[in-house]
UniProtKB/TrEMBL annotation:
Domain Dienelactone hydrolase: 77-214
Gene Ontology molecular functions: carboxymethylenebutenolidase activity
A matching Pfam family: DLH
InterPro entries: AB_hydrolase_fold, Dienelactn_hydro, Dienelactone_hydrolase-like
UniProt KW keywords: Hydrolase
EC number(s) recorded for this UniProt protein: 3.1.1.45
Major enzyme class: hydrolase
Protein name (Swiss-Prot/TrEMBL): Carboxymethylenebutenolidase
Length: 216
């Protein structure tokens, strides 16, 4: 696999963004936008970009914000749109574009999937199911029925009965969307699955299978 690169991307219309990306070694299967946790593109985000590229995807993480703190909804959509344009510039067809996010980026990935028509979207964990997690990001139950992109959400409930009921509520609302949706709840797991390798591996395989099914 080629070396992971970070560069500044600027379009003729004035949109500009710093991105970190990795290209697959062989045939390119499509393009995936990786939405990071609050604050910055971390080592976790870089590992995800690298791992997706190893599976054949042109994977790119936009740098949203420059300091720890909430991701603003408008910033997320603007950065995602610019990153999608970068992928198209690099030869990715519109029906082979997807988005994946983890932690607060998982919250953002659902919002993007409700506001943009993409080939597929995946959320790994995330906050803000019943109440907004960040300024400008809606509560997820308020937009899940509007999903315009096939969406997979995976959540640990941390043994919390309230969070368990919130995830089940999200499942019910997402099922009303006119696209394919699936919500997977891992009882007792932490929301990012950091401390449970078996759950993390299952979530990774489900992520790959979702993109395989919808981006082809």
């Amino acid at each position: 696999m080629r070396q992971m690169l970070t560069q500044d991307y600027e379009r003729a219309d004035g949109r500009a963004l710093r991105i970190t990306f990795a290209e697959p070694e062989s045939a390119q299967r499509g393009g995936l936008v990786v939405l990071h946790e609050a604050g910055a593109v971390t080592d976790t985000a870089r590992v995800l970009v690298n791992s997706l590229a190893a599976e054949g995807w042109l994977a790119v993480a936009p740098h949203i914000g420059s300091a720890p703190g909430p991701l603003a909804g408008a910033d997320v959509l603007k950065a995602t749109d610019t990153t999608l344009a970068w992928l198209v510039d690099h030869g990715v067809r519109g029906d082979l574009l997807g988005v994946v996010g983890f932690d607060l980026g998982g919250t953002a990935a659902l919002v993007v999937a409700a506001r943009r028509m993409l080939g597929a979207a995946v959320s790994v964990g995330g906050y803000g199911i019943s109440t907004p997690a960040s300024d400008g990001l809606p509560a997820l139950v308020d937009v899940a029925a509007e999903l315009a992109s096939p969406w997979l959400g995976m959540y640990g409930d941390d043994g919390d009965e309230l969070l368990e009921s919130e995830v089940e509520r999200l499942r019910e609302v997402a099922a009303k969307a006119e696209v394919a949706t699936n919500v997977v709840r891992y009882p007792g797991a932490r929301h990012r699955f950091d401390e449970d390798p078996e759950v993390a591996e299952d979530a990774w395989q489900r992520t790959l299978a979702w993109f395989d099914a919808h981006l082809r």
